[in-house]
Amino acid sequence: MNIFVNARVKLTIYYLGIIMAISLFFSLIIYRGSTLELTRIENTQRLRRPNPAFLIDPDIIKETKARIFFTLLTVNFFILATSTISGYFLAGKTLDPISKMMLEQKEFVSNASHELRTPLASLKSEIEVFLRDKTSTLKDAKKLLESNLEDVNNMTRLSNYLLELNSFQNENKKIEFKKVDLSKVAKKAIGKQKIKTILKKTIVIGNEDSLVELVSILIDNALKYGKDVKLITNHKTLEVNDSGHGISREDLPHIFERFYRGDKAREKGGYGLGLSIAKQIADLHGAKIKVKSELGVGTTFKVIFS
Fold first, then answer.
1. How many CB atoms lie within 10 A of CB 110?
2. Stretch among 66-75, 133-142, 178-187, 227-236 having the lowest mean pLDDT
3. Which of 90, 72, 78 lies closest to 13, judged by CA?
4. How far apart are CA 289 and CA 283, in angstroms?
5. 51 pLDDT band (50/70/90 cuts)?
6. Contact call for residues 205 and 228 (beta carbons, < 8 A)
7. Which of 166, 164, 230 is nearest to 199 (CA)?
8. Which of 78, 159, 211, 233 is 20 to 30 A from 130 (CA-CA)?
9. How far is it, in rounded angstroms, from Cα 287 to Cα 282?
10. Domains with residue ranges and CATH for the chain
11. Which among 3, 24, 5, 2 has a CA at the least distance from the CA of 13?
12. pTM higher than 0.85 for the full model?
């Protein structure tokens, strides 16, 4: 991106300017101090004229001063060269997180726009077809509204996902942490859903509402793509197992990325944001999510709290 190339060059120049200003300042002090000392020695020798054998040749004094100047000049050229390379490298390192963040933001906006465009296009198309059809009845209008309502609900779900994801990424958001029993969190997340459980009391420090959301996402994900779902809590660990389709090795490294969906996930619909939100919640609690999966066997999500 040209903007980052320009910023990197400017930052390098700023670094270089500061380093060279310091280098030249100290070089000037060294040169000034050295020449003053040589002048002092020369003046002292002149006062000892009764003993001319000990006098220093003035040409040697001049040559020494010239050598000091040349040495300092060489050192500064070396500092200039190394500082240019180092500064350019450090400028790149400084701007790299910002560049990645902007790239992620660009991809996020692009993906969100794409996901919103689909239901909007569907709405527009259905309404245009309905308006052009002169034989449309009240029954047709009702069907149209039902279909439109479904699209509106999809967009609402997507916007809620995006707001939720943004809330967990907001560093300024204040979340209350206290002692929470994971077994109780699991029961709240399960609700009336019938899944197998082995729930043992285990206390962690966290926010109950966000942890319920995390567990709900993992359960919904397991129910959507698998069967025989089992939820286990024990020793500051929460585990969700299923014996479903499994996740391919190619998809596994990307499942926590926003809007990412594997081939099987696309068949089931969704927006690819649930696991991303789950990861954000886990990170917020200083927990790790580990995933093991085998195609045709099933998947295990394990959340480990410190």
1. 11
2. 133-142
3. 90
4. 9
5. low
6. no
7. 230
8. 159
9. 5
10. 2-103 (no CATH), 178-304 (3.30.565.10)
11. 5
12. no
Helix (H, G, I), strand (E, B) or coil at 304: strand
Query: What is the C-alpha separation between 54 and 267, in angstroms, rounded?
Result: 98
Q: In Å, what is the CA distance from 158 to each residue of 113, 121, 273, 299?
A: 11, 15, 9, 25
Q: Is 91 exposed, middle or buried (0-12, 13-18, 19+ CB in 10 A)?
A: buried
Could you tell me the pLDDT band of residue 74, with boundaries at 50, 70 and 90?
very high
Q: Is the pLDDT of residue 244 over 90?
A: no
Q: Show the tokens assigned to 146.
A: 């039902």
What pLDDT, in 10s, does the model give residues 268-288? Answer: 556 677 888 888 889 888 899
Which of 272, 238, 233, 235 is closest to 255 using CA atoms?
Answer: 272
Distance CA 59, CA 65 (A): 10
Residue 112 host element (H or E): helix 58-132
Q: Which of 70, 89, 87 is nearest to 79 (CA)?
A: 87
Under 8 Å between Cβ of 30 and 72: yes
Two tokens, residue 227 = 């069967």
CA-atom Rg of the chain in angstroms: 35
Residue keyed to tokens 């993906």 = 111
Residue 183's CB is within 10 A of a number of other CB atoms, namely: 19
**Residue 224 binned pLDDT confidence (cut-offs 50, 70, 90):** confident
**Is residue 213 within 8 Å of 281, Cβ to Cβ?**
yes
| Distances, alpha carbon 20 to alpha carbons 9, 16, 26, 50, in Å | 16, 6, 10, 47
Evaluate whether 269 touches 221 at the Cβ level (below 8 Å): no
> How many Å apart are CA 157 and CA 29, to the nearest integer?
68
**Residue, of 45 and 306, whose pLDDT is higher:** 306
